[in-house]
Specification:
The chain contains 5 helices and 9 strands; from the N terminus they run αβααββααββββββ. By secondary structure, the protein is an alpha+beta fold. Helix 2 packs antiparallel against helix 3. It starts with 5 loop residues before the first helix and ends with a strand.
Length: 174
């Protein structure tokens, strides 16, 4: 018999994929003035991905150094704007905010994150947001939104990457 621990589940919320995707469409080709544009500081893709995730989660994690939050350009977590830091936070987060797992392409949904490495090394450097998938997701039917080179409803298959990983957001903790 499967028993649900009410203490754990009472603090777990559903990720609002509709809000995350709506935000991605709204801001794909412009910048929300509430957030700094990191275009000239290495790129804005993970900042944009974090904004989309926040639109779908509405809860940040203010843990210094290892959390995920944005107050202003000088007061933010590395995970808000850094590709690998975002991955690490989402996969390892046991505290408040969104939590995720790395999955196969067939298990992604709109509102999830793709991370790409364009180098020969296993060094990820781009974080598009999935805005649409086929009924069984695969590389050829996923559309993304992204910043740095602004995109919306852009085929993931148009990118040329060396490595790819998919981050499925499972939920949010209070």
């Amino acid at each position: 018999m499967f028993i649900i621990n009410p203490k754990i589940n009472s603090h777990t919320l559903k990720y609002n994929r509709t809000k995350a995707v709506s935000y991605a469409h709204q801001w794909a080709f412009k910048r929300n003035p509430r957030y700094y544009d990191f275009e000239d500081l290495g790129g804005d893709c993970t900042n944009f991905a974090s904004q989309c995730i926040f639109a779908g989660s509405e809860i940040m994690n203010y843990t210094p150094n290892i959390g995920w939050y944005y107050i202003n350009i000088n007061n933010r977590a590395p995970a808000w704007t850094g590709v690998d830091f975002l991955h690490r936070f989402l996969i390892r987060n046991n505290g408040s905010g969104p939590f995720s797992e790395e999955v196969d392409v067939k298990d992604v949904q709109p509102g999830d994150i793709v991370q790409l490495s364009f180098d020969e090394a296993d060094d990820f450097n781009h974080s598009p947001v999935i805005v649409s998938t086929g009924s069984i997701p695969d590389i050829n039917n996923i559309l993304i939104a992204a910043h740095t080179i602004d995109r919306d409803n852009y085929p993931l298959s148009n990118y040329e990457w060396e490595y790819i990983r998919f981050i499925h957001i499972k939920g949010i903790r209070k």
